[in-house]
Amino acid sequence: MSKPTARKPRTDAERNRGRVLEVACELFAERGDEVQMAEVAKAAGVGIGTVYRHFPTRQALIEAVTEQRFAEILAYARTRCLPNPDTRQALSCFLTRIGQVHDEGRGISSAIEAALGSTEPRGQVGEDLLALGGALLERGRADGTLRADAKLEDLYMIAGAVSAISRNAVGDWRRFIDIALDGLRDPARDRP
Amino acid sequence: MSKPTARKPRTDAERNRGRVLEVACELFAERGDEVQMAEVAKAAGVGIGTVYRHFPTRQALIEAVTEQRFAEILAYARTRCLPNPDTRQALSCFLTRIGQVHDEGRGISSAIEAALGSTEPRGQVGEDLLALGGALLERGRADGTLRADAKLEDLYMIAGAVSAISRNAVGDWRRFIDIALDGLRDPARDRP
DNA sequence: GTCGGATTCGGAATCCGATTCCGCTTTAAG
DNA sequence: CTTAAAGCGGAATCGGATTCCGAATCCGAC
């Protein structure tokens, strides 16, 4: 049974968790992977032990930060991309946002990339992001922007690719987005 | 001046270096990133100090292993891909090989990926690989397999993407290769 | 063949950063 | 206000890369 005996979590603990996560977001965005746990603790004004109580592992902390980023992307996609009636532009806008997030916050990029590709979406945010992608995909298939056999997986492969390309600075990821979306176009209705 | 005072390197040193590199290739391929320097040393039958003399850093060792992989890819591309008269197939074959290398040796994948995207090709191998890509690209533009404005950078973005996708197991990278090459096709001569 | 010094070896010691542990402090509940 | 549970801080521990240095091996000269 779900114990009704559960006491309300201490307010100071909640606050501390929040501070740590917030500070971690900033630090990772600025200096990326090189940030140390002790630094995060000091910057948040708590002891190392406290950081570890809330995020049992460096990896866990990184994942939490990553989820924040995902939430940002999700919010952006909902307000700026979905509303665009041109499906191609909506898709491009969505993918572009992913590239931008990497360009801005240098850190956690690899985490974002890994999470993007994971079939186990961490929590509600991942779930929602997946759903949003599905909706865009459906629209695209319906209005002919995408080939009929385009899959959600395809979209996420491309998203992962954008992540990798921007992270490694391989080239112009904006250009890549165009190429990839062209590749996902319906070949039967080309030529404008 | 290039010091003529340089004595020929000791033969045992050469041999040790070779052993270490060989053993490292195997270990990294089998167990990837988790391999420790001490392990490599033991497996190669030398002391840790020796490993460090030849590869001053774990990172350096990984890069050396990576170069081996690149050499394999280069050799394969030369003998199996270039000779294929169908440029599309040749390109696909080349990219497929990259995906396969990741699927086989689980390790150093991230290193391969990073190196693929680097504008500073490590040594002759990278140089040659770049040249080979350029040749395929040129062929593709000439025979209409690729759009006229396709760049070498595009090809390497795609290569990096294939690495990332196969490494993170985001999805079916073979399918991605098709999509990406479709996107790089000449849009003016579609419809068979 | 063998002598002397340069080069390489081996592996113990060191360094660094993540993670664990535990006595002390603060909060929720009665 | 009292008390036990929930949290806290940070010193100690651990794991693994990297450094150091005396001992062992080569190379080239005689």
Overview of the structural elements:
- The structure is a homodimer of 192-residue chains.
- With 192 residues, the first copy, chain A, is mainly α.
- Chain A has helices at residues 11-31, 37-44, 48-54, 58-81, 87-104, 109-117, 123-143, 152-168, 173-183.
- Chain A is elongated.
- The first copy, chain A, has nine helices and no strands.
- Chain A binds a DNA duplex (30 and 30 nucleotides) through residues 7-13, 16, 36-38, 41, 46-50, 52-53, 56-58.
Fold topology:
Two copies of one chain form a homodimer.
Chain A: H1 11-31, H2 37-44, H3 48-54, H4 58-81, H5 87-104, H6 109-117, H7 123-143, H8 152-168, H9 173-183
Helix pairs in contact in A: 1-2, 1-4, 2-3, 4-5, 4-7, 5-7, 5-8, 5-9, 6-8, 8-9
Chain A binds a DNA duplex (30 and 30 nucleotides) through helix 1, helix 2 and helix 3.
Largest sheet composition of chain A = none
Largest interface: A-B, 36 and 35 residues
Strand proportion of chain A: under 5%
What is the share of helical residues of chain A? over 70%
Distance between the termini of chain A: 62 Å
Q: Multimeric state of these chains?
A: homodimer
Look at the helices and sheets of chain A and give the structural class: mainly alpha
Characterize the overall form of chain A: elongated
Rounded Rg of chain A: 19 Å
Order of helices and strands of chain A: HHHHHHHHH
- Helices of chain A, by number, come to 9
